[in-house]
Each structure stands twice: as C-alpha cells, then as structure tokens.
C-alpha cells in the first residue's frame, strides 16, 4: 500500500484521504468544497450541493 501511495504522490501529486461519511458527511462535503474552491482559485464553488453527500456515500473522487 505504501508503494502505491508513493506512486500517486510522486507521479500525480495525488493523495488518498480516509473520511467518515457515516457520522460526519456534512463536514466532509464542506471540506471537499473548500479544497476545490481553493485549488480552482474560487472558479468552482459548492461542487457538492447540500444533500449531495449522505451517510450512504462510500467514495468521492475529486480532481481539480
């Protein structure tokens, strides 16, 4: 697993983050939206709308 994470980081500048959708999905949604807004220099705001993430969400793949 560590070699895969190193490959992602070194080759693509990507990371994997484990989050708690089951108990804190709204906070996760807000964190993702904040990250997208930051890396797009506010060109994309609120990528994930209210209700777009819930306790049944298992994976979100984000690239910006």
Automatic annotation (TrEMBL):
InterPro entries: Serpin_dom, Serpin_fam, Serpin_sf, Serpin_sf_1. Transmembrane segments: none annotated. It is found in: Secreted. It holds the Pfam family Serpin. One of its GO terms (molecular function) is serine-type endopeptidase inhibitor activity. GO terms for cellular component: extracellular space. Residues 2-64 form the Serpin domain. Keywords: Glycoprotein, Protease inhibitor, Secreted, Serine protease inhibitor. Coiled coil: none annotated. Its main location: secreted. It comes from the Eukaryota. The keyword Glycoprotein applies. Gene3D superfamilies: Antithrombin, subunit I, domain 2. Belongs to the serpin family. This is Serine protease inhibitor. It comes from Amblyomma americanum (Lone star tick). The lineage of its organism: Eukaryota, Metazoa, Ecdysozoa, Arthropoda, Chelicerata.
């Amino acid at each position: 697993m560590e070699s895969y994470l190193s490959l992602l980081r070194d080759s693509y500048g990507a990371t994997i983050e484990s989050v708690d959708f089951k108990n804190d999905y709204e906070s996760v949604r807000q964190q993702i939206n904040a990250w997208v807004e930051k890396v797009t220099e506010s060109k994309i705001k609120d990528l994930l709308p209210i209700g777009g993430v819930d306790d049944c969400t298992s994976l979100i793949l984000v690239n910006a």
